[in-house]
Amino acid sequence: MDNTDQYLLNFKGYNFDLPVVDVDFLENLEDFEIRDDDVFIVTYPKSGTIWAQQILSLIYFEGHRSRTEIVKTIDRVPFLEYNIHKMDFLERPSPRLFCTHLPYYLVPKGLKSKKAKIIYIYRNPKDVLTSYFHFSNLILAMQATNNMEEFLEKFLDGKVVGSLWFDHIRNWYKYRHDFNILFMMYEEMKMDLRSSVLKISHFLEKELSEEDLEAVVKQATFTNMKSDPKANYNDILRNEVGTRNDGHFMRKGDAQGFMRVKVFRVPLIPWPVH
Ligand SMILES: Nc1ncnc2c1ncn2[C@@H]1O[C@H](COP(=O)(O)O)[C@@H](OP(=O)(O)O)[C@H]1O
Ligand SMILES: CCc1ccc(OS(=O)(=O)O)cc1
């Protein structure tokens, strides 16, 4: 374990956010007991974790959909390794919902029984990079950088929470057959939220009525989440994690990089030879 950094804890080759991680919990993570009906959202940081937390909260809790219960998404779908509210996971009623940034090789081994469900959300790295640059300058629990070039170097070296973006996504995909896993792309969720919610609810075997589906989609849009104190993390950042400026967890929710990739792809179609 490399603990020389003020912000990063390298545990078994993967970087955790030192100010918010529970090291004792990490030591026993492999044996953390998994229930057959557990559900995990897995992401690399800045790839749509809190979006998925809101979607799952809306799918599973009628009181969340109808706005009759005021429970934050972080308490409905807590981070496994960043348990800032010190929740007793063993006491939680089933089905337990979690989110995590863990790489495939550090997750509890019970997930390999392929009963519990995993939803892996990935986002194009250019938007992850932009989002991550602003986020790490915002929260006190991460090291700030002076400019994008400086952050880009750290990101490409994997010297950030989550380590290398490429390793995370490549290996979760490579070892997908070891798990009961659904891959969702942030950009597709953005393009067609309704179909994405349907895909997720189908995977979770939680079929929604038309009315409930509408309620989930409506409350999971960027605009509605941004103004929803249960889902936007404003409170958590300001009052619990601490911030350096007046930025927000939900900044822009863009899918810029994806659009450019699509444009760049066009010339790859076989060119007519004259
Ligand atoms: N409903 C939604 N629609 C689109 N993007 C969303 C969203 N909810 C959160 N996000 C975006 O997801 C990113 C945060 O990811 P994570 O939760 O994994 O940390 C932020 O991106 P930006 O910083 O680009 O705005 C945030 O705005
Ligand atoms: C639960 C608080 C918290 C801490 C750090 C986070 O950042 S990241 O997702 O690892 O980039 C998010 C939430």
UniProtKB/TrEMBL annotation:
Reactions this protein catalyses: 4-ethylphenol + 3'-phosphoadenylyl sulfate = 4-ethylphenyl sulfate + adenosine 3',5'-bisphosphate + H(+)
Name the UniProt record assigns to this protein: Sulfotransferase
Keywords: Cytoplasm, Transferase
UniProt-listed Enzyme Commission number(s): 2.8.2.-
Chief location of this protein within or outside the cell: cytoplasm
Residues in Sulfotransferase domain copies: 36-256
Family the UniProt entry places it in: Belongs to the sulfotransferase 1 family.
Entry-linked Pfam families: Sulfotransfer_1 (PF00685)
GO biological process terms on file: sulfation
Compartments where found: Cytoplasm
Gene Ontology cellular-component terms listed: cytoplasm
Molecular functions per Gene Ontology: aryl sulfotransferase activity
